[in-house]
Description:
By secondary structure, the protein is of the alpha/beta class. It has helices at 7-22, 39-51, 71-76, 110-121, 124-131, 170-178, 191-196, 207-212, 239-243, 247-254, 257-273, 275-282, 291-315, 320-337, and strands at residues 24-30, 56-62, 82-84, 135-139, 147-150, 165-167, 182-184, 202-205, 221-223, 235-238, 285-287. The strands form two sheets. Strands 7-6-8-5-9-11 form a six-stranded mixed sheet, sandwiched between helices. A five-stranded mixed sheet has the order 2-1-3-10-4. The longest helix has 25 residues, at 291-315. The radius of gyration is 22 Å and the shape is globular.
Amino acid sequence: MNKYLSAAAVGAISFAFVTEAAATEWNVSVWGKRRAFTEHVEKLAELVSEKTGGEFTMNVSYGGLSKNRENLDGISIGAFEMAQFCAGYHRDKNRVITVLELPFLGVENLEQEVAVSKAVYAHPAAADEMAQWNAKLLMTSPMPQYNIVGTGEPRDELSEFEGMRVRATGGLGEAFKAVGAVPTSVTATEAYQAMEGGVVDTVAFAQHAHLSFGTINQADWWTANLNPGTVNCPVVVNIDAYESLSDEHREALDSSVDEAIEHYLTNYAALLERWDSVLEEKGVQKVEIDAAVIDEFRTKAADPARDAWIADMEAQGLPGQELYDLVVKTLAEAKGGS
């Protein structure tokens, strides 16, 4: 074997090492199956790969890397580079963003949900809290206002919520609790079995989740306009993984977020357009709640929940009032511009 390699051979080996070093492969932990809720993650992976000529790829895993309640823990230890989670799964770990789960905030559409989420995610308190888990907030997973499905006779009076066992997490759970319901925070993937087994009477979800997790197939009725609030489910990246990206790959990731969100919004709009036909096809009654009932619900749930949340955050040294005011201000601006 020759002691010295030719210049051409050295160049070829060097090129091979550079090529290998330039390749980036991320694992992404989500759950369930591919659905409207994950379309921005799928689009992000597609865009990043396109922009980098296949050098930066993402493997999106539906439950294969972690349980949904453990995704933030997985990010913190670097078990994977990107993950999606919902604030209500572990409110003590992501206190700041739970402001977005307060009931009856007045968010009217997904564009407004994106606006308020972006504002809160950009607040230093949110970034600092996520940094404790080695996580960087990348983008939200905007969902419409939740509504409930149930079996038997429709519950369209507030008195009928008394003792109602409802699958509802976070601020939504607190809202239902305020009117006498009994919330349980079983995960989305457990909701169908909980409904089928009689563990819960009703399930609160956005439309895509009622479809994806099969609760609509158990339902006799669906509340079309209760709209008590929604949950906030960010997509985060491991800070070490993010900072180790090359400038080119980091730019490909950052510049793809808005386009991925736009794709999500377009896709979700199509789902909402066909929702009524889904209800009809499955024989589910569409229940319109009287405005007076909704007002009563809001009075009992919204103000007490807001005041309690602000007091709780301030007691923990977090800017609760400032965060709530930020949501109100951003929402007013979003409505003014729409």
